[in-house]
Automatic annotation (TrEMBL), chain A:
Gene Ontology MF terms: phosphopantetheine binding
Pfam families cross-referenced by the UniProt entry: PP-binding
PROSITE patterns, per database record: CARRIER
SUPFAM superfamilies: ACP-like
Record's keyword terms, sorted: Phosphopantetheine, Phosphoprotein
Protein name per the record: Acyl carrier protein
Signal peptide: none
Native species: Rhodobacter capsulatus
Gene3D superfamilies: ACP-like (1.10.1200.10)
């Protein structure tokens, strides 16, 4: 089971290192698209997440969600989040 | 006397590439490469486990300093084969092409050699493109295959002018962060031998099929190595042929493959970041390269694809301006912002209030990447291939290149006084016809009719075995069914409706053979299907005057349509060369 805070923290750090954006701009409702994340990055992020958390993450997880909040809700619906 | 060692060594990895490698090697040979002599470079092919490995004697006539080796211990990842190749290279500057299915443009090797001279420790990087209408992992799910690609390549006669590869390869693969952003990888790159040694070659820890992220990793390690500088070669490129490669051609599984590659990279390197060091750009851009490349670049990647208004430019006369404006409107280039705003709503359950108050009024600010992408698609006439959005909201879906080409054809007909009427079979909203009629009116060509043939109810369902599976009939593709009243209305709105616009409503099978058309100077076929294309050719080709144009909109895009054309041309012994207009449009001139 993943923990929401850990996922949020990791995603924020990941996006900071990938895009060079300020952590403060990466809010839960900021569209990934506006952060300069394209579809390739989205799949890369799924791969890194899978490795980091040791849980299978679907390749389309980030692609099909527009924001961190939506992604968290999606994980919760799939029963991956405690 | 010992022969002088080469200046450049290029390692090319092959794996089951019987179709692709001959083209790749031709494109690397002195017969095709310009500005570099045969003795200046060597090519070393390392075959990584093909069942029938390529043989050097089969390429003897290329005049290429070529060596082909079978890698003794093949693995799914080509990384070890590459490192083996690096050990064989004799030159001080060594290149690697991790995927032997990539063809080169004619000035590539000379440009890389010169680019390397600009820095003591250069990381010479190249741009890569994918042949065909779009990203191959997507287009192959829409039917793009080797036969389709072969047609595109034949249509541009690439051996004669390799820069035309740019024309059929609108998708640039490694510039996802913009033309002047960091490259995501370099699928062919040259480093000095000392740098290869310092890096220890590729990292064999990358064991994924195809090498996973090993290629990107190599580039990033090279860029982070002290004292190096990236030099990106512009004006040249490498072009990926479809071949069932693990990454580029994984089709629907591509996302999974990319995910696993990223996972492996993250496991090995503990982070993911794009290395964005300062770069130089090197572009010894030849005239031919400049022309082809400018078309590619201008196709929507830049903000102003059309002539920038400099004060010194002589003003075009009004007629020219009218046609330019008309074309922009027919393509809805002036309405792209609205289309992009609407696209952003597709599939959404609820619309955020900010959409109405902000996004809609600031599409360039709020949806910049999508707008840039839409420009590119419209310029290339690629909208019809994108899964997310439907056909454009303009009057034509054929895109800028084919519309410009149509204008050129009509202008030629008028200038050379080729006899006959103009006709389109398959008109949708009528945009291509509107342009033709406007040009006739402008030229005062009172004697020519414009024939507008369509069911005005969409495509017929597939009936022949050749069309099996291609059901674009009204039930499946309602957007393709446009009534005659609507097309007539468009003619009237533009002030172009008169008695010389002749409508032929009904399915081609019923309307064309017995129609009143006597002589045609231009026949434009855009009915998509095998049946529609063949019916139109059989009914009308004999009425095309000598010097007249036959234009096939879907030759590159739909195998069914191409088959009809190929069979018809073969049956009639038509040898007039078929030229590609862009990735899908083709034409020939009747002799
Ligand atoms: C791709 S659209 C044409 C696009 C158009 N030329 C443009 O400029 O955008 C295909 C058109 O062909 C018509 N069509 C295809 N097969 C036909 C047939 N056998 N008989 C009549 N109309 C046909 C369809 O109704 C549709 O309007």
């Amino acid at each position: 089971m993943l923990n929401e805070t850990a996922v949020r923290t990791w995603i924020t750090e990941f996006l900071v290192s990938l895009t060079g954006a300020e952590a403060a701009t990466i809010t839960g409702d900021a569209p990934f698209y506006n952060l300069g994340i394209d579809s390739v990055d989205a799949v890369v992020m799924a791969g890194a997440m899978e490795e980091h958390f040791g849980t299978e993450i679907e390749a389309t997880l980030v692609l099909r969600n527009a924001t961190i909040d939506e992604l968290i809700a999606d994980l919760r619906e799939s029963g991956l989040l405690s | 006397m010992t022969p002088k060692p080469p200046e450049l060594s290029l390692i090319v990895i092959s794996h089951e590439m019987a179709r692709e490698l001959p083209r790749t090697l031709y494109s690397l040979s002195p017969r095709y490469q310009e500005g570099i002599a045969a003795e200046d470079y060597e090519v070393i092919v390392i075959d990584n486990g093909s069942r029938q490995p390529p043989r050097a004697e089969d390429f003897a006539d290329l005049g290429l300093n070529l060596r082909i080796e079978r890698f003794a211990d093949p693995t799914p990842s080509p990384v070890r084969a590459i490192n083996h190749g690096l050990g064989l290279a004799a030159a001080p500057l060594i290149g690697v092409s991790i995927d032997g299915a990539r063809m080169a443009s004619p000035g590539l090797l000379e440009a890389c050699r010169r680019a390397a001279r600009t820095d003591p420790m250069p990381v010479v990087s190249t741009l890569s493109f994918q042949i065909g209408p779009g990203p191959q992992w997507l287009t192959q799910q829409q039917g793009y295959d080797s036969a389709w690609e072969d047609r595109l390549l034949t249509g541009i006669d690439w051996q004669a002018d390799g820069y035309r590869l740019f024309d059929i390869s609108p998708f640039a693969e490694n510039v996802g962060r913009g033309w002047f952003g960091p490259l995501s990888e370099s699928n062919l790159l040259f480093l000095p031998r000392a740098l290869w040694d310092a890096l220890g070659g590729f990292d064999p820890a990358f064991e994924s099929p195809g090498g996973g992220a090993a290629n990107a990793d190599l580039l990033w390690r090279a860029l982070e190595h002290p004292g190096t500088r990236q030099v990106v070669v512009l004006g040249e490129g490498i072009f990926h042929q479809i071949h069932g490669g693990t990454h580029t051609n994984a089709g629907a599984a591509a996302l999974e493959v990319h995910k696993r590659a990223a996972k492996e990279y993250y496991r090995l390197r503990g982070r993911i970041r794009v290395v964005d060091t300062e770069r130089s750009y090197f572009g010894p851009v030849s005239r031919r390269a400049a022309e082809a490349y400018a078309r590619q670049l201008a196709a929507g990647q830049t903000a102003a694809p059309r002539a920038v208004a400099t004060p010194l430019r002589p003003g075009p006369e009004a007629g020219e301006r009218y046609i330019d404006l008309l074309k922009a409107v027919l393509l809805n280039e002036t309405g792209l912002e609205t289309e992009v705003a609407l696209d952003a709503l597709r599939g959404r359950k609820d619309i955020p209030p900010a959409f109405w108050s902000e996004t809609l009024y600031d599409v360039p600010g709020k949806l910049a990447p999508a707008l840039a992408e839409k420009r590119r698609l419209r310029a290339q006439g690629l909208d019809t291939l994108t899964a997310q959005a439907g056909p454009p909201l303009g009057y034509t879906m054929i895109g800028r290149r084919r519309l410009d080409h149509l204008q050129d054809c009509v202008a030629t007909i008028l200038a050379e006084a080729v006899a006959g009427d103009l006709m389109e079979c398959g008109v949708w909203r009528g945009g291509a016809c509107l342009l033709m009629k406007a040009m006739l009116d402008l030229a005062g060509a009172q004697d020519r009719n414009l024939w507008v043939a369509d069911s005005f109810a969409g495509l017929p369902p597939p009936a022949l075995p050749e069309d099996e599976g291609l059901d674009l009939s009204r039930d499946h593709a309602p957007a393709l069914a446009v009534s005659q009243a609507r097309v007539e209305r468009a003619f009237a709105d533009f002030g172009l409706l008169d008695a010389r616009v002749r409508f032929l409503p009904g399915f081609f099978a019923d309307t064309l053979a017995g129609c009143a058309v006597e002589k045609l100077a231009l026949l434009r076929l855009d009915g998509d299907l095998y049946s529609s294309t063949l019916q139109a050719l059989e009914a009308l080709y004999d009425r095309v005057a000598p010097g007249g144009f036959v234009i096939i909109d879907d030759y590159g895009g739909l195998g069914q349509c191409a088959l009809a054309v190929d069979r018809f041309r073969a049956a009639r012994g038509i040898t007039a060369p078929l030229g590609m207009i862009d990735w899908t449009g083709a034409f020939w001139r009747k002799s």
